[in-house]
Amino acid sequence: MNLELLKSAQIGDLSLKNKLIMAPMTRLRATSNGVPTDVMAQYYAQRATAGLIITECTMVSPMSLGYMNVPGIYSQEQAKSWSTVCDAVHKEGGLIFLQLWHSGRVSHSSLLDGKMPLAPSSIAGTGDLHTPTGKHNLETPKKMSLEEIKEVTQQFGSAAKLAKEANFDGIEIHGAFGYLIDQFLQDVSNHRTDNYGGSTENRSRFALEILQTVCSVWDSKRVGIKLSPSNTFYGMGDSNPELIFGYLLSELNNLGLAYVHMMRPTPEDLKAGQTIVDTLSFARRFYNGTLIANGGFEKIEAETVIETGLAELVSFGRLFLANPDLPERFRCNASLNDADGRTFYGAGPDSIKGYTDYPSLAETLARG
Ligand code: PHB
Question: What is the residue-averaged pLDDT of the chain?
Fold first, then answer.
């Protein structure tokens, strides 16, 4: 099949062998100290035929922790183990960006050594989390001081430096999914009255300052950002999402980024009345650069997105999770392995079930 998806592409100065991006996915296979494990290197290397891999969300500090066994990039030990992951992917001819993340209010004091989670305002998100002391609802977070805002911005900068030392090809700032940057953007979670709340300009400040900081470490051509203007995860929402996300997307034009990675709403988000239905067309109205489409795309729909110019690239989560050789399967029009939801989130470090044991097409054929 002569799919556009399988043709090469350019992101900034990087040449991608195809337009299939492996989407960031939380898999929880790191140690309890956030150190990447050997199975993570194997998992990512297995998927090196993606045009680009974007890693799972990775903590920029201990306070970024939202889930047990997520990896971090704030210590030398973590960076060193990440370099093993990068080497394994590069050896297979792949490219890999690290997703930098702060969970903000999507956390719990029992994950944070008794400290309260940080957020723009003292407003709890909805939902619950697994913690060492069982399942807990999200707590009412501590409103960040101006000092703490500066500190977190600097943590993104330090993490970006370590990502460079670890030999990543670039970084993605996680501005989506109801985590800290998203909490600053949207007014359901940001009631501040200082320079970081209120107007669209003020609510975008945190995201833009983080981007400026990491772009002093990395060439901006190697920096992307992920946004989810219509997703309601953890109680997210905004009284005028067109305004805040339109403003932010316009401002991003000044930075010369590698790409903007746009999530589309889920059926539940649409039922909840979210108004930006077509996030790609929306982004195109404001942003002139490269777009990656994300959100449960299948092959034919993804191909249409590329052919009609709605986005330059498409990222796949579940399909890459269950099919390490997804581009090859698309090429041969082969059947796909089903993803097993029971093993999405690891039973701790080194648990390979539902992680590195999905067979490649060749393995399936060999088994008959
Ligand atoms: C995402 O990039 O959309 C993403 C990553 C990790 C999560 C959730 C969402 O836990």
Answer: 96
Within a 13 Å sphere around the CA of 260, how many CA atoms are in the beta-carbon half? 32
Which single residue is written with the structure tokens 């390490």?
324
Say whether pTM exceeds 0.85.
yes
Q: Which pair of structure tokens corresponds to residue 216?
A: 């002093």
Question: How far apart are alpha carbons 114 and 108 in whole angstroms?
Answer: 8
Can you spell out the DSSP letters for 84-117? HHHHHHHHTT--EEEEEE--TTSS-GGGTTTPPP
Query: Does the beta carbon of 287 sit less than 6 angstroms from any atom of ligand 1?
Result: no
Residue type at position 72: G
Q: How many other CB atoms are there within 10 angstroms of residue 272's CB atom?
A: 14
Please check whether residue 241 is in contact with residue 186, taking contact to mean a CB–CB distance below 8 angstroms. yes
Residue 1 pLDDT class (50, 70, 90 cuts): low
Please state at what angle helix 38-46 crosses helix 76-91, rounded to 10 degrees: 30
Among all residues, which ones are annotated catalytic? 179
- The single residue listed with the structure tokens 């489409």 is 293
Residue 360 token pair: 């490649």
Regarding the beta carbon of 176 and ligand 1, being less than 6 Å apart is answered yes
Q: What is the Cα–Cα distance from 165 to 168, expressed in whole angstroms?
A: 8
